[in-house]
Amino acid sequence: MIDRGIKGIFILILYLFLLGGAVYIIDYYPKPAIEGALMIWMPWTLRLNLLLLLAGLLCWWLNGRDANGREEAASRSSNNLEGTNNRSKDFPTNNHGKDLVSRNRIRDFFTNNRRWLIPALILVAAFSAVYFLSPQIHRLFYDEDIYTNIGQNIAYLNRAAMCNYGIFDYGDYQGNWMEYNKDPNGWPFLVSLVFQAFGVNEAYVFLLNNLIFTGSVFIVYLIVRRLTDRFFPALLGALVYAIIPHNLIWSNTAAAEPAAAFFGGLTALFLISYLRSQKEIHFYLFALTLPLACQMRPESGLIAIWAAIAILVLSPKTLLKRHVWAMGSLTVLFLMPHVFHLYAMSGHSWGAEGAKFSTDFFLSNLRVNGPYYLNNEQFPVMITILTLTGCLVGKGIRRWMAVILAWLVLFWGIFLFFYAGSYRFGTDVRFALMTFMPMSILAGLGGGIFMEWFAKKRYAGALIVLVLLFSWLSFLPMIRTVGQEAWAARFDHRYAREFVKKIPNRSIVLTHNPSMFLLWGQSAIQSHVGLKDPELVRQLMDRYPGNVYFHFNFWCNTERDPNRKLCEDVMAAYSMEEIAAAQEQHYHYGLYRMRTKKNVNAER
After folding, report:
1. At what angle do helices 202-228 and 186-198 cross, to 10 degrees?
2. What is the pairing mode between strands 523-526 and 508-511?
3. pLDDT 10s digits, 51-108
4. DSSP state, 316?
5. Residue 162: strand pairing partners
6. Which residues pair with 581 in a beta bridge?
7. 515 and 472 together in one domain
8. What is the pLDDT of residues 404-417, one digit of tens each?
9. Are residues 511 and 466 in the same domain?
10. Which SS3 state, helix, strand or coil, does residue 587 take?
11. Are 360 and 493 in a shared domain?
12. What are the residues whose beta carbons fall under 8 Å from the beta carbon of 413, sequence distance 6 or more?
């Protein structure tokens, strides 16, 4: 009893120390100092968080294998004599018997293993659909370049920041003007792991999101199986998630939303597993997944609120267990950097003036974000019907249904109050991705109810899947279409990639978007240096004689934007020689060799 009391006091002191340290840092250090510290320490805290999570997964897997191995060994021992005595009966020796045995083995293999073979086929189909059907392209300009460049900087410079002045000298990457980004660093951190392993290549980021999407399909399957212990609802939930059009569209980009949905679902899976099994390893995995999940998107922290709701509704006694508070200290520890991040970014303009969250946006966003799920234009209404049916689930799982519904409402409702939360505006529809996993879980439950209404007839399940897939066919043209959204920025990106091929490796480009050039291994610096620091430009001209370039880009074409004036002033301040140019509608894109006008006059 005394020993338990001492452990409890130690845990309490630990929490007081963590919370006291957080208050002290926020109160004592200015925001720029916190940003500078986060830039250095964030990569290491994320690495340690992931390492401990992977260690927990490994222990869980090894313990499971040991337990299964002991059960199989006991089964083989008990059946060994019977199998030996009946071998001649079970395995005929004539040719006809061999063919029969072969066919029976194949049939038995598929019959006995359909519980994992069919989900595996859905995963393969999901990966194939996202890889081959949806265009592999950026859709969120230029944020995806920034995320990926931060991943590049974490991988090679151990700095969680975007680079505004980077140099490549014979493959050696140097980042000079580092800027801490307003978005969380979870997604760039995942990108950095891929870059460390395989090198910097945008194609790897698209593939990473393809795999994350496929993993999310599997998470839906596991959650529904965990809730119902039934095969068909779990299979249907996974299928629903795999065919949602905007899931497929955005999972072939470099956006952060697919990763946010994946880690939110993984957090829910581990918490549900713990609440049903009460195994400490499940809570350990939940405690270490939650901090990662919160750092994928600004709204991802809502998953922590959902977890609290789930515990209070389903098992409030969990809060009285000592191991919960002990392991919860890891959650608090790894969430601290994110708390500092939110504090440092508080008051940020987010690219717009005025209030960012307000009840003034509620009705206008509701008029768009509600019908999105009902009008069968961008989202299959068949899935909505299944989801609503899932909300009618029977008494045995009603509280679980309410908790999953709370997950859906939280991530749908938050954007009703956000100034850019309407799904109408092209890229903002990506916010809907956070609602797709709880919807798919409820849709799986709804399919299970339909099966019960049809007395669990097999044809009923096949009919549901057939209707679902048939209704999905009408969305294939939308899935395959690139669309006009962000066309000007998209062509800027495309032409810039072509322009880079026309200049030497050892050169530097003045551009509004250094991130995308740095990802291609091209030295780049922010355009404003041409006016704000002409001395640095002259130094660059000495370092790269004849190979300093100005990128006339998307921002140089925008009406009523100070960036347009900046481009005009830079073009006027230097002598420009056109190296490459392109036109898309009324937008002009180009790459120009820069020289000082004084040098030009001297040459003449």
Report:
1. 120
2. parallel
3. 999 999 999 888 876 655 555 555 555 444 444 444 444 434 455 555 555 555 655 6
4. G
5. 179
6. 590
7. no
8. 999 999 999 999 99
9. no
10. strand
11. no
12. none
